[in-house]
User: Fold this.
Amino acid sequence: MFVIGKIQSVKRKVAFKQFSDHGKPAENCDFIVTLKVNDAETTKARRREMQDYVNTLQRELARAQKDPDYQLDLPDGGFDEMYIREDVLDITGCFDLDGVELPFSNELLDAVLLDRPARIALITVWSELNLEEGGLKRKN
Assistant:
């Protein structure tokens, strides 16, 4: 028998400014994201992995500063996107040009991650829940 436990989740508003290419003022935008709440072990493991990555970057940059001929060996740092793809359960409040709300899909998440202001805002909200000391911060 295979039993799937209930996935704990939390909804957060993701707000950002969307700048226009045509000289118009920036527009305030937002959407609601539902994120998976990870257990303390997973959160700690992710923090360790991120810290190891930062330490490796610092070592490599220090070597490159001392030796101008040194070839940097930088590890892949795509943690944020990989973890966000694992943790985002739903996005609501995104509309097409006709005003129709877009259903959550991998394509919608891809579009959000490709839009720089939306991506930064989503990563910031996700980071507050997953990487800050103390873990999940609840808003009552």
Q: What stands out?
A: Residues 40-66 form the longest helix (27 residues). Confidence is low (pLDDT under 50) at residues 133-140. Residues 9-38+78-130 form one domain. The chain is about 45% helix and 20% strand.
